[in-house]
Amino acid sequence: MKNQLLPVWSLAFFLLACTSEPEEIPQTPLSDRNLEFEIYDSLVVDYLGNLILMDISPDGESFLLIDQNTDSIFVTNPEGNILNKYKLAGDGPENYTESRSGLAKFISPEEYLLPTSTAIYRYNLDGKLGEKYELGFSPNIMLIVSNGDNLGLRENKVYTTMSGRAMEEGKMGIEYQKVANVLEILDLETGEYTPTTPFPRMSRFSSETESHTSLAYYANVAVNGDSVFISFRNEPTIYSYHYTQLDSPARVMDVPFGNFILSEPAEDEDQSGFRMRDLFVGTINSVIPIGDGQYMIDYLSGLKDEEINPILSEMSGDFSKIFEEANKINTAGRVIFDGKSISPIIHKPKLLGSLTKFVSQEEIWFALNFSEAENDYSVIYKTRLIEK
Predict the structure, then answer these.
(1) What is the DSSP string of 238-304?
(2) Is 337 buried (19+), middle (13-18) or exposed (0-12) by CB count in 10 A?
(3) Which SUPFAM superfamilies match (predicted)?
(4) Looking at residue 205, what DSSP letter applies?
(5) How far is CA 47 from the centre of its chain?
(6) Residue 236 gets which letter from DSSP?
(7) pTM exceeds cut of 0.85
(8) N or C: which end of the chain has fewer CB within 10 A?
């Protein structure tokens, strides 16, 4: 019997060992991770120009691009073959004459929206106008980022930061900050805009004692699932809202940049002006939700007075030289933020220009850095986020 019991005890010991919890392998802290955009594919278009990718249709069959020099729009297939080419900027019954205020974005496999400073236009892939959604008021515009992704889409709603109703009503400075709404929501079924989302109570731009310039509180919006994310240009914070509760953030996340220079309050109630110094403060240029509670943030740290003042004095009036010298010492790039900590700046190969389309961490599209290469064709690089 003893000889028969030995295998039973051995089996019991083996099962106990197998059912014990495996030892957890500690993950590298985000602050210690060295990340990189790795090029692994490209879209090549037989066209000599300054093309960037605006969007990819939901079915993946159509790529929407624009030439930054001419504003000509191209539709290609995934192989880069040009299916359509047309220009919508300028005079014409179906064209837009205002400044383009961001990149176009698909709302279906056949249609896309193109934002301008006073309206949002709805076109099909042939460039035929379907609808023009006019704001109906003069927006508060201090900064236009024509290559920014600043339209949030959810079902038949479009979230945009083209705000300024209160300013048209005569509200300025602190009075404007008290009553202003950050977002306008366009209902694509009714064509109506609805103002929503005041400055968050915990934001410095909701101050009742200090007025800030519109350049400082220029807003970015991103929509992911049920969440709407808002950030302001000169505030190191992300505000997360549920789409059904846009008057108060569900979560407020302060981003721990090592250095982020804040602008001084405005000197008067006119928020439309700015000082040269305001161009060299910290900025959040975009926030992209990338999944798993993480965000990709494009930012500038800004320069301290002792760093920028000598440049402003020495290069007086030569704006291109001022920016050239400032960029040499400014900290700039993209980082990953997990709600608590940030990664080092993600390494970007020199061939890569601006990021214009994020699909997933495995599919991130960049324009060509034209200062690094000269081609007789256009190329858009497909990258993924990897750890070195």
Answers:
(1) EEEEETTBTTS-SEEEE---S--PPPPPPSSS-TT---GGGGGS-EEEEEEEEETTEEEEEEE----
(2) buried
(3) YWTD domain
(4) G
(5) 27
(6) -
(7) yes
(8) N
